[in-house]
């Protein structure tokens, strides 16, 4: 079994962690980091250590920050999970799509080129994306706090490029949701440009007429474009997985960190042992 890490943040790397009992795991949501990456992490807990079991194994303190990659199809719940995970561990959330949209907003040549690909639901060429992500990962906050890289890599060449620059994740999270559900979520998804809140016309409608009137839709959130993006996603994820297979954790249809923890805990041999499709309510995009 890999290194046990409590995703509830109840134990810190600066203490000797108890070996969790079965009951501990169920109650507090432990997850397993794959054996190959039984590295020494410095996790930043959100609460004080509580466990004082004498049967202990140690996590040596180093200055190494936690580095996580997360991948999932459009509307698979990545945004929600990223917010929760980054918040929990104090990680810098770096979303490739956000970096690209920011570039588009500057009106630069790279931004204009990127937009053409994004409108087609295609991957933006590596020469634009790779350097953008690399530069962001090199910023001091990413190095100091650790990072949660969202939506990158989406191809083997992107993964290999990042590896070549010396960036390696400790774990690769893959969210898996059925295609029908994804299309429905994407097509009904709306953004409130004032608050930044995401709504769904059917599952999570705006609270007032005033909010409803100002909602916007992402230019690539149409059925046609999401299907293109889904195809691209499925084609590319397999090759990326090949590179990270030893550190991949698959998570099915989740809508809260609790469910991520459940899936992480139940993950065995990189397979899916706890599909929680029924837990998905569709209310959290
Ligand atoms: N790593 C990447 N490589 C190439 N293109 C990307 C990458 N990440 C995002 N994009 C482009 O930006 C678009 C929007 O990405 P994103 O915001 O992550 O939304 P989604 O998860 O819905 O695809 C993608 O459809 C793609 O065109």
From TrEMBL:
Main subcellular location of this protein, as a coarse class: plastid
Enzyme Commission designation: 2.7.4.3
The entry's keywords: ATP-binding, Chloroplast, Kinase, Nucleotide-binding, Plastid, Transferase
Subcellular location: Plastid, Chloroplast
GO molecular function: AMP kinase activity; ATP binding
SUPFAM superfamilies hit by this protein: P-loop containing nucleoside triphosphate hydrolases
Membrane-traversing stretches: none
InterPro entries referenced in this protein's UniProt entry, alphabetically: Adenyl_kin_sub (IPR006259), Adenylat/UMP-CMP_kin (IPR000850), Adenylat_kinase_CS (IPR033690), P-loop_NTPase (IPR027417)
Reaction(s) the record says it catalyses: AMP + ATP = 2 ADP
Enzyme class: transferase
Annotated Gene Ontology cellular component terms: chloroplast
Entry-linked NCBIfam families: adk
Family according to the record: Belongs to the adenylate kinase family.
Assembly, per entry: Monomer.
Record-linked HAMAP family: Adenylate_kinase_Adk (MF_00235)
Protein name as annotated: adenylate kinase
Organism of this sequence: Vigna angularis var. angularis
Encoding gene, per UniProt annotation: Vigan.06G269700
């Amino acid at each position: 079994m890999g290194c046990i890490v409590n995703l509830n943040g109840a134990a810190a790397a600066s203490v000797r962690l108890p070996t969790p009992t079965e009951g501990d795991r169920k109650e507090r949501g432990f997850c397993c980091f794959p054996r190959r990456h039984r590295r020494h992490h410095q996790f930043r807990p959100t609460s004080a250590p509580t466990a004082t079991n004498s049967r202990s194994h140690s996590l040596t303190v180093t200055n190494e920050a936690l580095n996580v990659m997360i991948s999932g199809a459009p509307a698979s719940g990545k945004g929600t999970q990223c917010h929760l995970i980054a918040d929990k561990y104090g990680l810098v959330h770096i979303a490739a799509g956000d970096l690209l949209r920011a570039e588009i907003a500057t009106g630069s040549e790279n931004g204009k080129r990127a937009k053409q690909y994004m409108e087609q639901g295609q991957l933006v060429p590596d020469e634009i994306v790779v350097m953008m992500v690399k530069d962001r990962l090199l910023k001091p906050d990413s190095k100091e706090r650790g990072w949660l890289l969202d939506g990158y890599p989406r191809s083997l060449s992107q993964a290999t490029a990042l590896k070549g620059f010396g960036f390696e994740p400790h774990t690769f999270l893959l969210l898996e949701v059925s295609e029908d559900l994804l299309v429905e979520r994407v097509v009904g998804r709306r953004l409130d440009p004032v608050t930044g809140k995401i709504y769904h016309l059917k599952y999570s409608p705006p609270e007032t007429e005033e909010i409803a009137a100002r909602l916007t839709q992402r230019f690539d959130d149409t059925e046609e474009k999401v299907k293109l993006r889904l195809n691209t996603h499925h084609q590319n994820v397999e090759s990326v997985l090949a590179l990270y297979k030893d550190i991949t954790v698959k998570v099915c249809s989740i809508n809260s960190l609790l469910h991520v923890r459940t899936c992480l805990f139940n993950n065995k041999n990189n397979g899916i042992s706890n599909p929680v499709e029924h837990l998905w309510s569709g209310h959290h995009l």
